């Protein structure tokens, strides 16, 4: 019953957002509706299988942006990814600094809370005693909600929406869509065994990308399928707040606002440099650099009409890089903290 209630709330929020013509309406509406109810104390829950369906749909949609001539853009992609790497480190360190300096969190807790899109890894490391789990989940969840809520509104307000994905006016047939979905699920299960990030999104994207590059497929899933997929992911993201006590949310909201704003500013500055050098649209690069979860940011890029391949690849690269460097940064912070504690005895 809780899952049914959560889905009803999510789809209702999607309907309201679509009626108001909000940017990224299905994702934003479902996320805000469930987050608001969860914040009010309601028990909400979206089963993993429903969230995975949503991620698979988003992945299949993102894959439509891959084309055979993308190899010509390899140089641009390499330059952009190199600047993204620097942006990731600096934005994470800036966010960590402000949380440790003004909100008195330990450096390791601040690091885990500042690594965008790595909630599962961050919580696992916190559970090992390398940070405070409650603070990490509060700050990570609020980061996702704030970026998902304000980024599309800001981009839309600035009039910077993209032209849409390749084949955006073409709809995949149901038979072909079913074949791609089956292939995406198979790949997702393989990726999950290797602990790759967002396996269902990645599986759907890879299958769809290969089909579009080889010109076996052309176009997006039907609109209603995309709406349902976005709504499922939005509802699952917003439902996280039902597991967080209101006192913990209110205690951490100031730190979340400050750290997200600082990280977003750093990413915006790097996006400006990348856009100036490569002539890529600034808003597209900013969405690709934004320090949010891979699922939400890739979905927002798709919903706003930006190049889905560009946005998705950058966020998947960011998550992969963080999986490698975050344990190193946290281990260094913990060792330094222990050394300082020993010296003060």
Automatic annotation (TrEMBL):
The keyword Iron-sulfur does not apply. The keyword Membrane applies. The chain crosses the membrane at residues 77-100, 144-166, 172-192, 199-217, 223-241, 253-273, 285-304, 316-335. Keywords: Membrane, Transmembrane, Transmembrane helix. InterPro entries: AbrB_dup (IPR017516), AbrB_fam (IPR007820). Pfam families: AbrB. This is AbrB family transcriptional regulator. The lineage of its organism: Bacteria, Pseudomonadati, Pseudomonadota, Alphaproteobacteria, Hyphomicrobiales.
